[in-house]
């Protein structure tokens, strides 16, 4: 693979591993007001990201069209606040593995949806790789008890995971990964506050104890600030289809970190599923296939439409970060 593609793959993989670790952190926040916690997480992340947004950030934000602001609001509502609310709602009547399995299908949906929105056929290697990733995610997590409501909210969680990638593509070029991350965190913090006040009233926010504070800091600083920027930098280089393949690493990372806090175990099924996820990522990213003329496929450095790659090998360097 070209250096740009390799860097993009590593960034996307690293981001998804961090997100997988956040699922374990969520397990120690069960008694903390959910929406209030999300307000703290995204609000702190925004404050940390603003100085890192780069030169001309205010001008780039003013240049956005109204429809792009609507897309940013949807990205925060669907892919961040809505995704987390859907997972929590699903787990009220379903075991955690159920929404995890649905979210593990996100690479398949993105592998089909993004090309269709861009007026082209889905790539065969990416689609086959995405199917392997989905099967691997299922193997890692298994299937648990559920009902109709659990399945419905799990489908909403899947939609949120897909939206987090697809909705970001048209605003990634004008804003760049860092400013995009800061902006959606600001919007998500405002949306979380509205949800918190509406659902929890005056008890929507309280001082966290030591363990809760550590979990919230981990989510804000590591998962959101570092993870979001790495995710969008990876997508900037390899495109939404290939980047979403690495979301299969989320359940793998969750399974690996769960034993550390006593909320799960890592056995043969988790090892086999992890191997399938890695195989699917390698196949879908092109690492297992030979490109024409004996060369690797040029990296997805620039985008048209909804995320189709095109451009020179160094085109990613022309995009704001």
TrEMBL record:
InterPro entries: Diverse_Substrate_Transporter (IPR051258), EamA_dom (IPR000620), EmrE-like (IPR037185). Coiled coil: none annotated. Keywords: Cell membrane, Membrane, Transmembrane, Transmembrane helix. The chain crosses the membrane at residues 40-58, 70-90, 96-118, 125-144, 150-172, 179-196, 216-233, 245-262, 268-288. It comes from the Bacteria. Residues 292-321 are annotated as: Disordered. It is found in: Cell membrane. The keyword Cell membrane applies. Residues 7-139, 173-283 form the EamA domain. The keyword Membrane applies. It is a multi-pass membrane protein. Belongs to the EamA transporter family. This is DMT family transporter. It comes from Streptomyces venetus. The lineage of its organism: Bacteria, Bacillati, Actinomycetota, Actinomycetes, Kitasatosporales.
């Amino acid at each position: 693979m070209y250096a740009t593609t390799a860097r993009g793959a590593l960034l996307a993989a690293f981001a998804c591993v961090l997100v997988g670790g956040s699922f374990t952190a969520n397990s120690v926040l069960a008694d903390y007001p959910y929406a209030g916690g999300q307000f703290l997480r995204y609000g702190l992340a925004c404050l940390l990201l603003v100085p890192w947004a780069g030169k001309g950030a205010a001008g780039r934000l003013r240049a956005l069209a109204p429809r792009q602001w609507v897309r940013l609001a949807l990205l925060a509502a669907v892919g961040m606040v809505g995704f987390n609310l859907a997972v929590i709602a699903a787990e009220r009547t379903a075991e955690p593995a159920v929404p995890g399995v649905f979210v593990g299908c996100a690479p398949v949906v993105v592998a089909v949806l993004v090309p269709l929105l861009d007026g082209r056929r889905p790539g065969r290697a990416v689609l086959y790789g995405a199917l392997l990733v989905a099967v691997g995610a299922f193997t890692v997590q298994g299937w648990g008890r559920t009902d109709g409501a659990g399945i419905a909210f799990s489908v909403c969680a899947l939609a949120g995971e897909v939206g987090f990638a697809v909705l970001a593509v048209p605003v990634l070029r004008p804003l760049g990964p860092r400013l995009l991350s800061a902006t959606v965190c600001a919007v998500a913090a405002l949306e979380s506050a509205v949800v918190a006040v509406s659902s929890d009233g005056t008890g929507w926010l309280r001082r966290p104890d030591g363990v809760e504070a550590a979990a919230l800091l981990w989510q804000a600083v590591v998962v959101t600030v570092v993870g979001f920027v790495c995710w969008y930098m990876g997508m900037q280089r390899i495109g939404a289809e290939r980047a979403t393949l690495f979301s299969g690493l989320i359940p793998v990372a969750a399974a690996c970190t769960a034993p550390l806090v006593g909320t799960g175990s890592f056995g043969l099924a988790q090892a086999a599923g992890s191997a399938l996820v890695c195989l699917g990522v390698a196949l879908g990213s092109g690492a297992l296939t030979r490109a024409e003329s004996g060369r690797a496929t040029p990296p997805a450095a620039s985008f048209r439409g909804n995320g189709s790659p095109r451009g020179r090998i160094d085109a990613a360097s022309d995009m704001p970060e």
